[in-house]
Amino acid sequence: MRYYYDGKAKVFKMRGRVHDKIILYNVNYKKHIKIRHPEIDISKIDEILKEPDFVYKSSTNTKIYYYEKEYLDYTYRVVIGSFKKSTKEVITAYKVNNKNKLTIKHAYCVYDKETHLEFRAMKRELYDDLDYYYKLFNIAE
Question: What pTM, to 2 d.p., does this model score?
Fold first, then answer.
C-alpha cells in the first residue's frame, strides 16, 4: 500500500475490487478507526477492499459503499464514500456484530465473490451468446 502527503496530512492509497482509487487519511485512521474500532488495522482494511466477499449500497443512487469480508466467525465492514469524481475515501471500518449483520444497507449488491464473473469470463460468455444468436437467426458471420 502506498501513501503520499497532502500538505502535512499522510494519505494512504488503496485499490478496491470495485473502485480503483480509494484513499484513507491517517488522521481518520488514528483518531476514529483505531480508537473506536481497535479490532481492525490498516492492513485488514486494505485486504477487505482488495478481496471482499460482498460490496453493497443502500440504493442505486447513493455514493456510499459497504465492503464486507468474513474472517473466521466475524464479518468486517469498510465503508467508503465519494471524495472526488473518480476517488473514494474510507469513512470507517469495523467488526459487524450480529444485531446489524443484515440491515437496510444490504439493499443493492454491487459485487458478490460467489457469483462475480471476471471480465475475461464475461467476454467469453458474450462471445458464446453471439454464436448462439448467429445460429438462431441463421445469420452468417
Answer: 0.77
